[in-house]
Specification:
Elements (H helix, E strand, L loop, with lengths): L1 E6 L2 E4 L4 E9 L7 E6 L6 E6 L5 E3 L7 E5 L5 E6 L8 E8 L3 E3 L3 E6 L1
Parallel strand pairs: 2-11
Antiparallel strand pairs: 1-3, 3-8, 4-5, 4-9, 5-6, 7-8, 9-10, 9-11
Length: 114
């Protein structure tokens, strides 16, 4: 079992920055890739970024060049640095961890005002 807790969300003006954190506990040695997803009101949850156990990263086109995913030294923490935020980035952001199964955090709200 893996437990995930996100933090770092909040309200920011367009053009601003936020850094999200996701801390994993439990069977952290079994975690492979980790990622961030987001869900805006009335929309389906969408993939934002992924980082593999080897450190390779991938991003959705909508955030490429503005967001950076990284992993802490202990590999049980993943971060999402979000720069040049836009109102359309407003959503609940979720952390996901992959083992033989997958686990979700509870989400953290990001609101970008215009």
């Amino acid at each position: 079992q893996v437990q995930l807790v996100e933090s770092g969300g909040g309200l920011v003006q367009a053009g601003g920055s936020l850094r999200l954190s996701c801390a994993a506990s439990g069977s952290i040695s079994s975690i492979g890739a980790m990622g961030w997803y987001r869900q805006a009101p009335g929309k389906q949850r969408e993939w934002v970024a992924t980082i593999t156990i080897g450190g390779s990263t991938n991003y959705a086109d909508s955030v490429k060049g503005r967001f950076t995913i990284s992993r802490g030294n202990a590999r049980n923490t993943v971060y999402l640095q979000m720069n040049s935020l836009k109102p359309e980035d407003t959503a609940v952001y979720y952390c996901k961890a992959l083992t033989k199964n997958y686990y979700w955090g509870q989400g953290t709200q990001v609101t970008v005002s215009s």
